[in-house]
Write a structure and sequence with these properties.
Blueprint (H helix, E strand, L loop, with lengths): L2 E8 L7 E6 L6 E2 L4 E7 L2 E6 L4 E6 L6 E2 L4 E9 L14 H4 L4 H4 L10 H10 L16 H14 L2
Antiparallel strand pairs: 1-8, 2-4, 2-7, 3-6, 4-5, 6-8
């Protein structure tokens, strides 16, 4: 069974802030290792961020003209892992949401429950993000953009 992992591609360690000059690939592109992905400008000097391995560009979290700091999240890439069968034991298990009924304490909760899109839940699970920490968007629902914004903010706070 082939497994994929989400790789977080971050800016290099910078001395100051850089400007995103151009996105050199598009979501959905299959890129080889060392493919240029993003062009940055720092103090008039161009820096190019390359793919560390072969994979598919999932999404960019920056846009041209954005100002970014050291080690900031730039994009996410799906990378196929070697078929080493380490997750084969999961075959045939029900999805996590279907595995257990909703506890009575949660069903009767006076506080609103988190509303999360499936794609946001999947992204948060792949990245190890606690959805209770993520702020919902204007619609009151946590979507992929909200998870990406949280990851970007969390990585920026590490500086």
């Amino acid at each position: 069974m082939k497994q994929t992992t989400t790789h977080l591609i971050c800016a290099p360690t910078l001395h100051g802030y850089a400007r995103v000059e151009a996105l050199l690939a598009s979501p959905g592109d299959l890129v080889e290792a060392d493919t240029p992905l993003i062009s940055l400008v720092l103090d008039g000097e161009q820096l190019v961020v390359h793919a560390s391995t072969q994979g598919v560009i999932e999404s960019f979290v920056v846009m041209p003209e954005d100002e970014i700091g050291s080690d900031e999240l730039l994009l996410m890439m799906e990378v196929e892992e070697p078929d080493d069968k380490w997750l084969d034991w999961m075959e045939g298990l029900p999805p996590a949401c279907a595995a257990m009924p909703l506890p009575a304490a949660v069903a009767d909760a006076s506080e609103p429950l988190l509303q999360v899109t499936r794609s946001a839940a999947a992204l948060a699970a792949r990245l190890g993000v606690d959805l209770a920490q993520v702020h919902a968007g204007p619609s009151g629902v946590i979507d992929e953009a909200a998870v990406e914004a949280w990851v970007r903010q969390a990585l920026g706070a590490r500086r």
